[in-house]
Amino acid sequence: MPTGAAILLGACAAAPIKPAGFAFDGAALGAIDSAIGAAVERRGMPGAQFHLEKDGAVFERAYGALGYEAGAPAVTLSTVFDVASLTKVLATAPSVLLLVEQGKLDLEAPLYRYVPACGGRGRDGLTLRHLLTHSSGFPAGLPARPAWQGRAAALALACGKDITDAPGTAFRYSDINYVLLGIVVEQTAGMALDQFAARHIFAPLAMRHTGFLPLQRMAAQAIAPTHLAAPAAADQTLHPDLAHGEILQGVVHDPTARRMGGVAGSAGLFSTAPDLARYARMLLNEGELDGVRVLSPASARLLGTVQSPPGLTLRAIGMDIDSPFARPRGTLFPVGSYGHTGYTGCFLWIDPASRTLYTLLSNRVYPDDKSNILPLYGELGTLAAQAAGVAPPQALTTSR
């Protein structure tokens, strides 16, 4: 695969900066190129996409290749990536809010109203808002063993979990929250989460590369791979269901979503950086893009303003504002900017104060889940702010 200058020259030739009234700081853009190119060259990730946007100015690049193998195809801006937990804020949380707009869900209603099996055992006061803000008290995730398959099994396992803290009293990031929310959407909407999100979010936004189960719409070669299974003894913790040598390319990396058939409220979505930018642009425009309204202004604000219980880590509906996971904020974007990260090596971050949005997609988990690019998130956040001319952070107003 290409390295060093070849990575950057190929990226620049493929995707020039688009002119606009606003001009990015050129030195900061060069530093972004260098930081991502260096991460690819040191095998932090095989390839990546990056998109930075402000006031019509767009800087976007594709870097590296789909894998480390000789002859691996280069990443392009149409390469599709597994966006992992970005599913929570691109599909599940907005789907919940759309059903709230339709009068079919209530954020303050107890979970057991929609999922009776999750009542009792100290959980009767647990609301949809608690699930959306990770203040439910549920543990972090569903177990891998004993082996299980299917949505009914996922629901039984989730509702079988005791909460460890009273709802609204502690923050714990939990996939269980969004597994349950995905099931609530499906039961309330009368259709699968992937179908609801495609119909009401991705199609109206012309996010043409975005959706669950991508192999139903495109060839595997258009998708960045995320895992190459090692012998069972070395790979049994996260992926005990995979045979040695099996590759995940268009099949969701997250094991819970995979056991649920590839569609879960917590993970399973695939997308591109340009598509994610359209979604972020819609939020900055209070729920509308290109004359098409996707969310009400009130719903768009819920996704980007503090909605967590008082005294807890600052979270919006789905989105992160100020938690240990908020690395993409860097050192200059204010508390009050918001976004989310994903395990596969991705993030989306939005600053309404400066009207800046930026996203990184990568397959840092390929081939063996061992690469760590978390420091790059903070570095890119700071450089993106410098490129956009963002002033030092200001104090956040935390009222809803």
Report on this model:
The structure is a single chain. The chain has 400 residues and is α+β, with helices and mostly antiparallel strands. It folds into two domains: 5-82 and 200-387, DD-peptidase/beta-lactamase superfamily (Beta-lactamase); 89-95 and 104-189, Up-down Bundle (Methane Monooxygenase Hydroxylase, Chain G, domain 1), CATH 1.20.58.710. 31% of the residues lie in helices and 14% in strands. It has 13 helices and 14 strands. Helix 3 crosses helix 7.
Keywords for this entry:
2 domains; alpha+beta; Beta-lactamase; 400 residues; five-stranded antiparallel β-sheet; disordered N terminus
Strand content: 5-15%
Over the alpha carbons, how many angstroms does the gyration radius reach?
Answer: 20 Å
Query: Which CATH-level-2 architecture of the largest domain?
Result: 3-Layer(aba) Sandwich
Morphology: globular
- Main beta-sheet annotation: 5 strands, antiparallel
Helix content: 25-40%
The helix/strand series, from N terminus to C terminus, equals: HHEEEHHHHHHEEHEHEHEEHEEEEEH
Give the arrangement of secondary structure elements.
Blueprint: H1 5-14, H2 26-41, E1 47-54, E2 57-64, E3 81-82, H3 87-101, H4 111-114, H5 128-132, H6 151-159, H7 175-189, H8 193-202, E4 211-212, E5 227-228, H9 232-235, E6 247-248, H10 255-259, E7 269-271, H11 273-284, E8 288-289, E9 292-293, H12 297-302, E10 314-315, E11 320-322, E12 338-342, E13 346-351, E14 356-362, H13 374-387
Antiparallel strand pairs: 1-2, 1-14, 3-7, 4-7, 5-6, 8-9, 10-11, 12-13, 13-14
Helix pairs in contact: 2-13, 3-7, 3-8, 6-7
